Amino acid sequence: MSAGAAEKRTPLVRSVNAIKSFGDTRVLDGIDLEVHPGEVVCLLGPSGSGKTTFLRLINQMETLTGGRIWVGDELVGIVERKGRLHRRTDADIARQRARIGMVFQRFNLFPHMTALDNVAEAPVQVKRIPRARARESALELLAMVGLAERADFYPSQLSGGQQQRVAIARALAMEPELMLFDEPTSALDPELVGEVLEVMRTLAAEGMTMIVVTHEIGFARQVADRVVFMDGGVVVEEGTPDQVLRHPRHERTRAFLDRVR
Ligand code: ADP
Question: What is the pLDDT of residues 159-189, one digit of tens each?
Fold first, then answer.
């Protein structure tokens, strides 16, 4: 998607001066970022720069210390009524979170459930979809991530790469508008990284809106519409993969890229 086309649309995610502190430590120091529908944004930066915290704020696993984040036209965590801000109810937060799929470094599948049931479980429990139908959809999703033949396997019978692909299918089962990936390949043996990136590439090509925290520079170069480099809780620079990865403007970005390449 061209930048021009993106700008005309309403952002799916809009962060304005997002601040997060843990105690006295400020880990996000005013993040401004917009992600448009269908965009793939890769977040790069050294360990501790606040990337995971930013994803967790979007998904409401943490609460903002300051600033605002919108998903679609809704403020995250708070709601404005008659000019006053109120904290959202737990049910409302759960509803907001259901719009977002998140994939973690560790796959966290239910160990006592087959791949198929791992994928079908949330639609049954949360969306009250009849189990037979949820399992049908789950099988389609497993086919999409290349694991139809492994539907009846338990997590312990699957490789790390296969487990992560099940985790992606599980997130997709809730039909999210937005997918957040937090270093989805960094716990994998190197030979298993490619199969997970391939699924993510397919998802991107299908138009899914994605924010991906990753050290996979090759993936960012090929798949990202935009690359955002963070350091010390701020966005140091952002731009097209070509701008940020080939022609970084900031010394901090250059130093980071030299280290990870
Ligand atoms: P990144 O994903 O870029 O590695 P993180 O968002 O995980 O960075 O962490 C940013 C900083 O916030 C780190 O210094 C980390 O130690 C700190 N941090 C993250 N979560 C917590 C927490 N729950 N309590 C205290 N400090 C935290």
Answer: 999 999 999 999 999 999 999 999 999 999 9
Each residue of 34-93: pLDDT tens digit? 999 999 999 999 999 999 999 999 999 999 999 999 999 999 988 888 888 888 999 999
Q: With contact defined as beta carbons under 8 Å apart, do 184 and 101 qualify?
A: no
The tokens 């679609």 sit on which residue? 72
ipTM of the complex in this document: 0.97
Instruction: State in Å: Cα 181 to ligand 1 middle.
Output: 16
Are the CB atoms for 210 and 134 separated by under 8 Å? Answer: no
Cα 163 to Cα 49, 111, 133, 147: the distances in Å are 28, 11, 22, 10
Question: Which ligand 1 atom lies nearest to the CA of residue 62?
Answer: 23
Nearest atom of ligand 1 to the alpha carbon of 233: 10
C-beta of 51 in contact with ligand 1 (< 6 A): yes
Residue 223 has pLDDT above 70, yes or no: yes
Given this model, what pLDDT does residue 81 score? 86
What's phi and psi for 191, nearest 5 deg?
-75, -10
Burial tier of 121 (Cβ tally within 10 Å: 0-12, 13-18, 19+): middle
Q: Are 140 and 169 in contact (CB under 8 A)?
A: no
Beta bridge partners of 182: 213
Say if CB 53 and CB 28 are below 8 A apart.
yes
Contact (CB, 8 A) for 157 and 149:
no
Question: How far is 101 from 107, CA to CA, in rounded Å?
Answer: 13
Q: Give the integer Cα–Cα distance in Å for 1 and 79.
A: 32
